From TrEMBL, chain A:
Upper lineage: Bacteria, Pseudomonadati, Pseudomonadota, Gammaproteobacteria, Oceanospirillales
UniProt-recorded Gene Ontology molecular function terms: lyase activity
Limits of the ABC transporter domain: 12-263
Protein name as annotated: Phosphonate C-P lyase system protein PhnK
Source species, domain of life: Bacteria
Keywords noted in UniProt: ATP-binding, Lyase, Nucleotide-binding
SUPFAM superfamilies: P-loop containing nucleoside triphosphate hydrolases
UniProtKB/TrEMBL annotation, chain B:
Key word ATP-binding present: yes
InterPro entries xref list: AAA+_ATPase (IPR003593), ABC_transporter-like_ATP-bd (IPR003439), ABC_transporter-like_CS (IPR017871), CP_lyase_PhnL (IPR012701), P-loop_NTPase (IPR027417)
Keyword Transferase: no
Entry-linked PANTHER family: ALPHA-D-RIBOSE 1-METHYLPHOSPHONATE 5-TRIPHOSPHATE SYNTHASE SUBUNIT PHNL, LIPOPROTEIN-RELEASING SYSTEM ATP-BINDING PROTEIN LOLD
Protein's organism: Salinicola endophyticus
Family: Belongs to the ABC transporter superfamily.
ABC transporter domain ranges (all copies): 16-254
GO MF terms, alphabetically ordered: lyase activity
One Pfam family it belongs to: ABC_tran
Record SUPFAM superfamilies: P-loop containing nucleoside triphosphate hydrolases (SSF52540)
Coiled coil ranges: none
Lineage of origin: Bacteria, Pseudomonadati, Pseudomonadota, Gammaproteobacteria, Oceanospirillales
Name this polypeptide is given: Phosphonate C-P lyase system protein PhnL
Automatic annotation (TrEMBL), chain C:
Lineage of the species this protein comes from: Bacteria, Pseudomonadati, Pseudomonadota, Gammaproteobacteria, Oceanospirillales
Species of origin: Salinicola endophyticus
Keyword Ligase included in the entry's annotation: no
Keyword Nucleotide-binding: no
Family under the similarity heading: Belongs to the PhnJ family.
Name of the protein in question: Alpha-D-ribose 1-methylphosphonate 5-phosphate C-P lyase
GO molecular function, one term: lyase activity
Length: 269, 255, 277
């Protein structure tokens, strides 16, 4: 038997990211690497700085210090720089990167959707931004993606506000993934949903991650969600990472005092 | 073939060696109490062999399996996997590599089924194959074959296993564990809640896995099963358990 | 007229607006902010166009003012009288005779020539405003050419009506760069924007923005490959001049539902009738 190929290229190299609004408010000196095909969970309580970190990683908020380096795959780079320093490149390039190669799924689908236009237009927007100018093809992509996220393609012309919360979240995911981003950031993607709807969404996210080979940075306060989606976890507290490791290790064999407290505080029905 | 002599090369060398393994839990919440649960554990496991962990009940035999599977950190000692083209040390394996290792090399049948709620049993079982990029129709067929063999009624296949009985969940778990045909398989009480007929199926599955060259490390309380599957017993009373009887220091709240 | 500077605005203001216009001409389709002045008429009555006209008008220029194509509607008449009084310039209704034409919602049917200037009155200069309320964000979107949302609007039209239902203020891309609102002209007039020999200036009084299309500039109407841009067509010809190729207004003629279709461009219609007669 041959040794398995376990090496994965680094996709995101985060070095010394600090973004503080006040003492212990925000995130401080964060280092980690995200490898291709990995789902990295960032867990912690409200106010631990995980959302601030996500905003910095996702290109929405410049850090006070540190670098976010995106190492593009050779086939994406197309002769361009293989490594992009997210906050050193110009705003135009950064926004294009966020729009075309990356994706962001907001906790509240209203933040990620255009509520006033149809489901089809929501899904098609990123494609149109890429320059697709064929209505029939845009529509076909819209319907295919609605099927993929288990929405009725017959509702392609309905406005998102006529959808339930879970359906809106699936629509947001379709809208984000339609350009097949390499890297997706998710902020509590199952946060505001009913438990029964959560389960279906979790299963769908797992399937999409597998089928599309996505690399994901997932922020959640829900350790059960982290267990089911994330390969690896960063535990944050007061703006700092207190422990990192394989998801099962963090949850079954926590080392840090805070992690032990966090894990043992979970209610089980 | 080239110069194969005597025994098959699969059996000629170990698949797994564990040397000087220690495990200690430090419980901050309980005044920083430290519990040694494993001391100086060593073992060798050959391809095609089923090694059964033996020892008093409740001394934490699962701890070893969990360390091998990456659930527990390796404090001290060495866990080495052997391949034709080299070795792999798990205690120094970068975290990101575990995901691929579990997908391709190490399989685990745990005592409890942990899955996304509301996912159909058959989808739960086939997931390890899909994770490797296998064809969906083929994977489904293999999953159904295994579930049928384990006598899980067909009407349950499309239902999520959350509401199944203990024995039914256990069989879903076994099918999921065996379907991937991992070269190293960790078995934690796979027959605990099964009836005699299904125990026989699991024993047959273990036998087939041995024939494929799978190296297995297992915990079996049922003496009859143990005798039928074990090639060797590994006595652990000397290296497991210890200062206290707290074998599961951390709540398995998410199990 | 005593007490007023030529063309109402003081020279400093005109200079400021001309500088803004030079910038607008240099960056076709780009919205240039300018320090709009209070004019002796309400917003919405053409204060943007009037300030532009006042700034570029010379004593020898001949001015034409149209509203929806007509020289004889209230807005056109009052603006024409305004400039007759405050600038004393000669006015005309003949498109060919005019040096400066201020317009609301139309481009004359008679082709313009080099040297003429067409001044548009603009209510909402920002074509992205319908989808993005933040001015800061729309400026950034222009700067970075993030124009995907413009097609979202057209997509919605097709999804809802089966065709692009936007019939006026139809968005255009100027010189392959800036997406621009051509003011609420019917899309029928959009092809006249492309490669026009005249200079076209756009003024929004309330929003204090101006922009320009220099002569002979490429102007494309946004569309989809399988739903190409099309202009309106009529089954009728003009009831007065018989034109089958101009933009027609439907006019109700009595209380019994009588109606007729006539050219919206009164000068064009009259000159055709003159030729025919």
């Amino acid at each position: 038997m041959k040794k398995p190929v376990l090496e994965r290229p680094v996709l995101l190299d985060v070095q010394g990211i600090t973004r503080l609004y006040g003492p212990a408010k925000g995130c401080e000196a964060i280092d980690f690497q995200l490898h291709a095909g990995e789902v990295l969970g960032i867990v912690g309580e409200s106010g631990s700085g995980k959302s601030t970190l996500l905003r910095v990683l996702a290109g929405l908020e410049a850090p006070d210090a540190g670098q976010v380096l995106y190492r593009r795959q050779a086939d994406d780079a197309g002769g361009e720089d293989a490594e992009l320093d997210l906050y050193a490149i110009g705003e135009a390039r950064r926004r294009a990167l966020l729009r075309l190669e990356w994706g962001l799924v907001h906790q509240n689908p209203r933040d990620g959707l255009r509520m006033g236009v149809s489901a089809g237009a929501n899904i098609g927007e990123r494609l149109m931004a890429q320059g697709q100018r064929h209505y029939g093809q845009l529509r076909a992509s819209g319907q295919a993606w609605m099927r993929q996220v288990e929405l009725d393609p017959g509702r392609i012309d309905d406005a998102p506000r006529t959808f339930s919360g879970g359906m809106q979240q699936r629509l947001q995911i379709a809208r984000t993934l339609v350009t097949r981003p390499r890297l997706v950031f998710m902020d509590e993607p199952t946060g505001g949903l009913d438990v029964s709807v959560q389960a279906r969404l979790l299963d769908m996210l797992r399937t999409l991650v597998r089928q599309l080979g996505l690399s994901v940075v997932l922020v959640t306060h829900d350790l059960a969600v982290a267990r089911l989606l994330a390969h690896r976890l960063l535990v944050m507290r007061r703006g700092q990472v207190v422990e990192t490791g394989l998801t099962d290790q963090i949850l079954d064999d926590p080392q840090h005092e805070y992690t032990q407290l966090l894990v043992s505080s979970v209610l089980t029905p | 073939m080239l110069s194969e002599t005597g025994a098959s090369p699969k059996r000629a060398r170990p698949r797994l060696t564990v040397a000087g393994l220690h495990k200690r839990f430090l419980l901050h919440g309980q005044g920083g109490v430290e519990i040694d649960v494993m001391r100086d554990l060593s073992l060798t496991l050959q391809a095609g062999e089923c090694l059964v962990l033996a020892g008093r009940s409740g001394i934490g035999k699962s701890t070893l399996l969990k360390m091998l599977y990456g659930d527990y950190r390796i404090d001290q000692g060495r866990i080495r996997l052997h391949f034709d083209d080299g070795d792999l040390d798990l205690e120094t394996l970068p975290t990101y590599a575990w995901h691929g290792l579990r997908r391709d090399v190490i399989g685990y049948v745990s005592q409890f089924l942990r899955v996304v709620p509301r996912v159909a049993a058959v989808d739960v079982v086939m997931e390890p194959l899909l994770a490797r990029g296998a064809d969906e129709a083929d994977s489904r067929q293999r999953a159904e074959t295994l579930l049928a063999r384990l006598n899980l009624p067909e009407r349950l296949w499309q239902l999520p296993p959350g509401t199944f009985s203990g024995g039914e969940q256990q069989r879903v778990n076994i099918a999921r564990g065996f379907i991937g045909e991992h070269p190293l398989l960790l078995l934690d009480e796979p027959t605990a809640s099964l009836d005699a007929a299904n125990r026989d199926v699991v024993i047959a599955l273990i036998g087939e896995a041995k024939a494929r060259g799978t190296a297995m490390l297992g915990i079996f309380h049922d003496e009859d099963v143990r005798e039928r599957v074990a090639d060797r017993l590994l006595p652990l009373d000397g290296s497991l358990g210890g200062l206290s009887n707290a074998s599961q220091p951390c709540r398995e709240s998410l199990s | 007229m005593n007490g007023y500077n030529f063309a109402y605005l003081d020279e400093q203001t005109k200079r400021m607006i001309r500088r803004a216009l030079l910038k607008a001409v240099a960056i076709p389709g780009y919205q240039v902010p300018f320090g709009g002045r209070e004019m002796p008429m309400p917003y919405g009555w053409g204060t943007g166009g009037v300030q532009l006209t006042a700034s570029i008008l010379g004593a020898d220029d001949i001015l034409k003012v149209i509203d929806q194509g007509a020289d004889d509607t209230t807005n056109a008449v009052s603006i024409r009288h305004f400039f007759q009084r405050v600038a004393g310039v000669e006015t005309t209704t003949a498109t060919t005779a005019a040096d400066v034409i201020q317009t609301r919602h139309r481009i004359p049917e008679t082709p313009l020539r080099a040297g003429q200037i067409l001044v548009f009155q603009v209510p909402i200069p920002e074509p992205l405003r319908f989808i993005e309320p933040s001015e800061q964000e729309t400026r950034l979107m222009h700067a970075l050419e993030e124009y995907g949302v413009m097609h979202v609007k057209l997509y919605e039209d097709i999804a809802r009506y089966g065709h692009i239902a936007t019939t006026y203020a139809y968005p255009v891309k100027v010189d392959g760069r800036y997406v621009m609102d051509p003011s609420p002209i019917p899309k029928f007039d959009n092809p006249k924007l492309d490669g026009n020999p005249a200079l076209m200036l756009f003024g929004a009084g309330r929003e204090k923005r101006l922009y320009a299309i220099p002569p002979y500039t490429r102007v494309e109407s946004l569309d989809f490959e399988d739903h190409p841009f099309e202009v309106q067509r009529w089954e009728h010809a003009c009831a007065l001049c018989g034109s089958d190729h101009s933009y027609l207004d439907e006019v109700i003629t009595d209380d019994q539902g009588g109606r007729m279709f006539v050219c919206s461009d009164t000068d064009y219609c009259q000159s055709r009738r003159g030729e025919v007669a």
